[in-house]
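Researcher: Structure prediction, please.
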Amino acid sequence: MKKWILILLNAVLAELTRALRRSGRPGRRPRCAGTGGALEEAIAKRRSDVCVTGGGQVVKLLADDNEGSRHQRFLVRLAGGEAVLVAHNVDVGRRVEPLRVGDGVEFSGEFEWNDLGGVVHWTHHDPIGRHPDGWVKANGKMYN
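Model: Predicted structure follows.
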């Protein structure tokens, strides 16, 4: 009986793996609910799940978030005065180094509004191709 359960479990896992690979093929990637460059509008209208590009000055470096996937975190002040948290996944993308308070940065990712202004995440490539790729640019280098 145990042998049949293991065989069935292996078959289910194999099918799930094939399904994930199929869903990650180019042309089947989901789109964010907005277009790049809409960061200030997303903040003003309290929107989430919006693909954005933006940039500003690093005003604070925060400790990494090490729960689950590790994220490098830093606050960026935008030209309009708003501040957003950038949460850059360093398990998928490269750490932005060196990064200092006062550095100018540009980024592309997915914005999630919150009471503190919001978070930009997905600032890295998607290894399975199911989400639009993001990036961070600092000190002349691209990190994704």
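Model: Confidence is low (pLDDT under 50) at residues 8-30.
Researcher: Thanks, that helps.
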